[in-house]
Automatic annotation (TrEMBL):
InterPro entries for the chain: HAD-like_sf (IPR036412), HAD-like_SPP (IPR051806), HAD-SF_hydro_IA (IPR006439), HAD_sf (IPR023214), PGP-like_dom2 (IPR023198)
The organism's place on the tree of life at top rank: Bacteria
Record keyword DNA-binding present: no
Molecular functions per Gene Ontology: sugar-phosphatase activity
Full protein name: HAD superfamily hydrolase (TIGR01509 family)
Coiled coil: none
SUPFAM superfamilies per record: HAD-like (SSF56784)
Organism: Williamsia limnetica
Keyword terms of this UniProt record: Hydrolase
Keyword Nuclease: no
NCBIfam families to which the protein is assigned, alphabetical: HAD-SF-IA-v3
Pfam families in alphabetical order: Hydrolase
Length: 230
């Protein structure tokens, strides 16, 4: 198909892997350790965030004074907790593996674009498969993580294409904002928080049953808001 994107850029947590549930456990444990409960609203606000942005929101909810916020220490604690949870295995999101295979079969290069730090991403790639991607971009490898466009712009640059010629796959408001700010069209499967409709955003309930015709329609902005899909 000539109207397919030149590259496909995939988020990881909640898009390819059902790992947000594991982050839920770790973030809940962090909140308890700081003396608060991880409410639905607080957890939703941290979805897709960089490590520092997520920690900032939890610190603020726990009323930790700015000068007492131990970003390196708490970041290491959270990283170790998630790593332990990852070790037990990370399930795929429904239809995600098939979507990767279908797009790759067209000769379209794939990139992984995540706010997760490199050390945890490498662990998750044991499940996804490193050889699927021509490039991987992690949250600790760009000046500013999602919702800034930096991760998506870097991925497009590494693939040698313009971001406007790419189709992103996302699950969170934060990640979707980053993708569209970079100029990408996006297929969005909200995992735990609603994502507002917008230009060049196609909302699906799942990646299950995704077709090449739908990929082309999403890239060209002719599909729109499709909550009727799986």
């Amino acid at each position: 198909m000539s109207d397919l994107p030149k590259a496909a850029l995939f988020d990881m947590d909640g898009t390819l892997l059902d790992s947000e549930k594991l982050w839920d456990i770790a973030m809940g444990d962090l909140a308890v350790d700081l003396g608060i409960e991880m409410t639905h609203e607080l957890r939703e606000s941290t979805l897709g965030n960089s490590m520092n942005d997520a920690l900032t929101k939890v610190f603020a909810a726990a009323s930790v004074p700015v000068d007492d916020r131990d970003y390196p220490g708490r970041g290491a604690w959270l990283r170790d907790r998630v790593s332990t949870l990852f070790t037990a295995g990370i399930p795929w999101m429904s239809g995600a593996r098939e979507a990767l295979d279908m797009i790759a079969a067209q000769g379209i290069p794939l990139a992984l674009v995540t706010n997760t730090e490199r050390v945890l991403t490498e662990q998750a790639l044991d499940t996804i498969g490193r050889d699927r991607f021509a490039a991987t971009v992690c949250g600790d490898e760009v000046p500013v993580g999602k919702p800034a466009p930096d991760p998506y712009l870097r991925a497009a640059h590494l693939l040698g294409v313009d971001a406007a010629d790419c189709l992103a796959f996302e699950d969170s408001p934060t990640g979707t904002q980053a993708a569209t700010a970079a100029g990408c069209a996006a297929i969005v499967v909200p995992s735990a928080a609603p994502v507002p409709a917008g230009p060049r955003r196609t909302i699906r309930r799942s990646l299950l049953g995704l077709t090449l015709a739908e990929v082309a329609a999403a890239f060209n902005g002719t599909m729109g808001h499709r909550e009727d899909l799986r």
